Amino acid sequence: MAVGVVAGAGGAAAYAVTGGTFSPSAGAMNFGGFGDPDAQAVSPAAQAITEVRTVHSVDVGGEASRLLQQEQMTAAMAVNQISDAAANDYAARVKAEQERKEREAEARKPAKQREVEVWIKEAIKVLQANGTSIDNSSVGAIWTVIQKESGGNVNAINNWDSNAVRGTPSKGLMQVIDPTFQAYKLAGYDDIYRPVDNIIAGVRYVYARYGGFHNHPGLVGINAGTGYQGY
């Protein structure tokens, strides 16, 4: 049986079982033959104005808990969004600052170095595509070798050292001799005086003989304070 609110003409209210009736004027209940036999009968007029409404049970505590959890989840999501936005903003500012420093450092380089480094980076891309494990972190090392060997002169040729005496003078940016160039060039990059071609052969020779620029004798000498040595 459902529980209901009974409102009468006199404005009184009480809980009753919808299976019976309640008389606000007489205060008696009639449960279809199961009521109090001593109770006074409810007049037809009083019954006519009696209204029964069903009251649905609500767990107030449970509903409040659900709403609180929902608010906490919403607040947590908002905090996470703010944290993510702050982290992204910080990362963007760090990146922008790093790029600014790189631009300033690039602007301070001599024009010749900037020109040669363009060729170096192009050569690195070709080397990577052909299996050499190298990246732009080697640009500085390669530039140092070129600076010491040829000063960045693509047409440089050494006619006075031991190689020249043997009839194979060192040529180009990285000052490689013809036999070395022929052994380490890549197909399609076969002009010893062309900057990218010369760098490709020179780098491949350094990797084959020394394992990389970390063991290049000239760079090792500079780092040790004993000065650059040819390779």
UniProtKB/TrEMBL annotation:
InterPro entries: Lysozyme-like_dom_sf, Transglycosylase_SLT_dom_1
Organism ancestry: Bacteria, Bacillati, Actinomycetota, Actinomycetes, Pseudonocardiales
Pfam families for the chain: SLT (PF01464)
Residues annotated as domain Transglycosylase SLT: 136-218
Listed transmembrane segments: none
Domain of life, source organism: Bacteria
Protein name, as recorded: Transglycosylase SLT domain-containing protein
Alphabetical list of Gene3D superfamilies matching this protein: 1.10.530.10
